[in-house]
Structures are given as structure tokens and as C-alpha cells.
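Support case: magnesium ion complex. Customer-provided input:
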Amino acid sequence: MKQSQTLIPTLKEIPADADVTSHQLLLRAGFIRQNFSGVYTFLPLGKKVLNIVEKVVREEMDAIGGNEVLMPALQSADLWRESGRWDKMGPELMRLNDRHEREFVLGPTHEEVVTSIVRDEVKSYKQLPLTVYQIQTKFRDERRPRFGLLRGREFIMKDAYSFHLTDESLDASYQAMYDAYSRIFTRLGLNFRAVIADSGAMGGKDTHEFMALSKVGEDTIAYSTASDYAANIEMAEVYDNYSPSTETLKELEKVSTPNKKTMQEVADFLGHPIDKGLKTLLFKADESFVLVVTRGDHEVNEIKLKHVLHVENIELATDEAARELLGADFGSLGPIGVSEDVQVICDLAVKAVANVTCGANEDGFHYVNVNPSRDFGEFTYEDIRFIQEGDLSPDGKGTIKFAEGIEIGQVFKLGKFYANQLGAEVLNDQGRAETLTMGCYGIGVSRTLAAIVEQHHDDAGIVWPKQVAPFALHLIVVNSKNDEQVALGNALYEQLQAAGIEVLYDDRKERAGVKFAESDLIGLPVRVTVGKKASEGIIELKERKSEEKEEMTIDALMAYVK
Ligand code: ATP
Ligand code: MG
Ligand code: MG
Ligand code: MG
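Agent response - structure generated as follows:
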């Protein structure tokens, strides 16, 4: 591709509203442009990388028997009513009406659509297991779209869905998908970890998130120094037997004013659906991270205090402050004070749970009725542990370290939730109707692109790993007024392309300094410079990663690139 004939609008200055490196570099190197908050155009270079990421994803999905499909982004609200998510999804769901005032959704995900198709088209166990996937644009009205491609409101996702009659079959597909994800992210040059994650209350059980390690990651993971153990910090430990005594509860009455809320009020207040469970609140205060999460698990009718994490340097925070800091995924119940005293934090978590008055709502949505003394039994502080760096790993091997991660993918055993809601059944080998069980598997394709940049850059710009670079080689003519240089540049461009090398050819009439700076910014793995020694047939080669430059003949170059 000749640079004079393409669109690579580079920027010298760091754009004011771009806070993270990948966002800055993708804008500055001319890969993307923002159309409006959370919505981006992929320019020619960006689209090339996107294609490469998609190709890797497709190859690995196809290799495990995935069938590519393309489902509509525009979905009927009726389907979302059938699943119950029309009411439960909250403001993240993009809703719209047509000219007849019929309601629609711009799909944030496709469980409803895919389950309805399988319900209608798959009738026998003989057609199972079945895995379909698509690479498609998704829409989520994120509370805080930010960090460029990392959290958009319109973004590209690979979503796959598998359908089964038995749990064993689901387990096998889940494992195959997990392995395929590991291959995909390895091929893309990412430093990542698969971590145990929170399955929420959608009837799911096993789930892993794939985290690209990066300081800008919005998730924190706890991992072992000596084993494969790694968990989203939300999941690092589960406290099944957390049980405050009546005395504790009395104490709690003193520390904060009772603030009773119904589940619906809580849901409205949190701005997210109650089916996700009750998440009681946390803070990120300066560098320290505090998390107290409680969750109602509606399925099994019990409440768990899940995690109490490292506490340090905490200030009193209000709900508003907490919500502001944490975004839509978190919330708190009532005014909760947080102090340095860890016990108070635990107490407050219990308090928050105890304050929830539960019942059935108008739609018949079921949830827990909390009776603290009954549901929690005896509580001692020894039941609570605080995960800190340096702790023994839960599997007994090695110690715990914390790291920030970007969620680039997630695999999830959904179970029968959607099949039940939408009535997806097949006939088993006895001729009897059985409800399907299901898995879903997502990769944030556009987010992954940004994660690669987060991990592969230096002060001068992006440093694309070879396998994802938009072009293999950047060919630069130093002086475009010099006929010999131009002639050699043109000839090399032809010759390299004929040899199957993808070349970006800077044939523009720009100053050499500009060309070099932009070349570093764009970050192709190899730069070939045609300069003063053009008349001798000598070029200069430099790998983006290294400082060294090497002069060589055209023949040596051709041997090098092969
Ligand atoms: P997050 O926790 O970051 O909000 P999620 O858990 O809501 O992500 P999933 O529903 O698991 O996301 O979707 C599958 C994948 O899609 C995610 O693992 C992530 O890589 C990607 N993704 C989700 N939301 C966004 C977004 N707003 N912008 C870009 N990619 C996203
Ligand atoms: Mg999300
Ligand atoms: Mg997530
Ligand atoms: Mg996820």
C-alpha cells in the first residue's frame, strides 16, 4: 500500500481526552477515529489489524467445530421479554422503536436470538452438540465509555454458543473453547491469564475470564506464584459460612441508620438488574483497593458474603462517590461508611444485606427473604479472611500476587436458563422432550486489539508483534526528490510485493524526520530505508524492536524477509 494513496491521519500531539496508551497511540498513529463517545471508526490500518485478529479467531473457532453464522444486531424486544432480560438488563440495553412504535433492542449479546433459532430448528439429540459463532457489532450503553476501544458503546465481539443434551457434553465443549481461547490469545502475542470468575445468578456455574495483564485493566486478579491458580479478585475466595451473631447485628444498628429498601428499589438504585445478585460495594481509594461484595444467589436461596479484600488507606465514602468510582457494575445499599477498621467494613457488608427487604415483585421474579439470624447463624470474625499479596494460594501452592487485567474474553457454562425461558427442547434417544443445556463464549475483538497495543509499545509508538502487524514492512524513501532513491524505492516495492511481503510504502513528499517519526508511531516490525546509498543498491534495515540499523544489499534484504 502506498502511503500517498491511503488514509493514515497521524497526530503529533496526544489527544486531550485519551487517558490510556492504547487509545492515544491508536489515535495518533491513525488507526482509529472517535465518532462520538464510545463509538469509533476503524481507518485502513485499524481495519487491517482487526481483520488479522478476526482471522485468528475464525481459524481457532473453526478448528474446534464452530459454525460461523451472522445474527442480526437488531433484535425484537419480545424475545428479550421471553428471557426476562427486557426488564432485568437496565439502562445498558440499547432500546429503540420503529415507526409503528414497536420495540427493539440493539443486541449487546445474542443468547436470546441464538436460543430461539436452535429452539425452532433443532429437534433431535442427534443434531447435538452444536456450536455456532459470529463476529459482529455489539451495542451496550456503558455507563462510562472510556479508554477508547477498551470500553466502547459499539464494539466488535466474537460470540459463540454451544448446545447440548448433557452436562458432560457441555463440559467437553467448554474445555475445547477454553483451549481455543488460550491458543488465540497466545497467537495474538498477548500476556494473559485465564482466571476463575463470578458466574452471577443467570443459572450459570463454571466461568473463566481471560485477562490480558495490563496496568490499565479495570479488573484485579489474584494469582499464585507457583501454580495455575488465578481468580478475578471478586472470586478469589468464597465465604460460605459467614454468619454474624445477633450481637454483631445489634452493633450494626448503631453504626449506620437503617435504610430499608425493597429489591426493586435496590435494582433501580443500582441501575442494574437484580438478577446479577446484590453486590455491596467497594472503593478504590488512591492506590489501594477495597472490596466488600455480598451476593444473593437466588437459585439456591442463600446469601454469601463473598469477599473481603485488602484494606488500606480508606476514607469515608458515600454511595455517590462509590458509584462514580466504580461505574454501573457496582453499587451500594444505603449510606455505608467505610473506615480503616476492617471489622467495621465486614459489619457494614452484613448490615447491607440485613437491610434488604425481599419479596416477590410484580413480574413474579423470585428472590431471597433474608432473615439474618436464620440465614447467617453464628458468626465469628475468624470466618473472614483478607486476601493479600503474599498469602498462601488457596490451592496450597505458592503465594498470592495481585495484578490488573483487561477482560478480553470469557467462557461460561450457562446451563438451562435460556433454554428454559425460551422453551428450547429436543427429543432424546428415548423419544422424550428434554431441555437443552448451553454454553456461551465471548471475545472482545476490538478490545483485544487495544490490549495488544497496551502490551506492545514504547515511547515512540506501537510495536506490533509480527503476527498482528497491519503490514510486515515499512518501506521509506528518505528524499523523494532524489530520482535514484525514488526509482529504487519503487522497484523494491514491486519486488517485495511480488515476494508476498505486505509492504507499506512511504512514497510521500514529506521530510525524512516526519517519515521516521510516523513510522515508529505506526510500529511495523521492519523498516527498510532507501537513502544516500541507493545508487550502490544498498538499503538500511531496522527492526522496530531493536536499536540497531543494518546496511544491506537488495539480495540480502530479499533473503532476510523470506
Ligand atoms: P466488562 O466486565 O469489561 O464490562 P463484560 O463481562 O460485560 O465486560 P461480556 O458480556 O463477558 O463482557 O462480553 C464478552 C467480551 O466482550 C468481554 O470479555 C470483553 O472482552 C468484550 N466487551 C464487553 N464489553 C465491552 C465494551 N464495552 N467494549 C469493548 N469490548 C467489550
Ligand atoms: Mg460489562
Ligand atoms: Mg466482566
Ligand atoms: Mg464478561
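Confidence is low (pLDDT under 50) at residues 235-368, 370-386.

Case will auto-close in a few days if no follow-up is received.
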